[in-house]
Design goal:
By secondary structure, this protein is an alpha/beta fold. The protein has a domain of about 170 residues: Rossmann fold, CATH 3.40.50. The chain is built from six helices and 14 strands. The strands form three sheets. Strands 4-5-2-8-1-10-12-13-14 form a nine-stranded mixed β-sheet, sandwiched between helices. It has a three-stranded antiparallel β-sheet with strand order 3-7-6, with no helix packed on it. A two-stranded parallel ribbon has the order 9-11. Helix 5 packs across helix 6. It is globular and about 50 Å long. The model has no long low-confidence stretch (mean pLDDT about 95).
Length: about 260
Amino acid sequence: MNSLIPFFGLEGRGIVSIVGAGGKTTLMFRLARELKEEGIAVLTTTTTKIRWPTKTQSPLVFVDSTVEKLLADIRPYIAVHYHVTAGKRFSPQEGKIYGFHREEVEALFGANLFTWVIVEADGAASRPLKAPAPHEPVIPQASSVVIAVVGLDVLGKPLEEEWVFRSDLFSAITGLDRGSPITKEAIVAIISHPAGLFKGSPPEAKRYVFLNKAISLARKKQGEAITTMLLDQKRYNLKGVIIGAVLKNDFTFYPI
């Protein structure tokens, strides 16, 4: 398996926050699987909400409203299974797990049960692109890595809510008119703008962009053009850009 761990600098221990749209959940569980296979203890969770994971994504899921109870429940299992998912409550109507406050995520990490905690820290209503609302993303301030995800399948699609979550905000931030085709320049703008995908990231956190759904040569070339624009500007505290497709196991890393 082509490992993503080196691309995202997952050395030592820490909290990874994943923001944006177009594959956050898939990426989170992919990273967790890689860490587990190396015998590294990892917790997957959220500060928003996620669908109840499949057995393949996460065989063990724990839900409780208190951090202390969760830690007590998880402790006997983590040394054997290496990967668990946790949430604060489950909504049967939605089929979703609701997550934790930022400080609770930091408390889970601080218990030293896990080498890595991977957090889905943003919501996108299954769209391939988004702009954050004032309360988004919900990034724990102890995060050492922040990954912004964009689905390249959105390029050329109209700037409408069908394709872009919070499309009005996206238009305001990027200057792209509603209904206009989504351009590479608009994606660069939402990545790099202070009110864009990395909004609220800790200043010292390593930032990476993951351009997902690059399932054809044409999409890879579009991703390379976006990467070139980001690399040329070099002012967004980025450590690297990854172009690939999580489901295809095909990645290219461009360090900065």
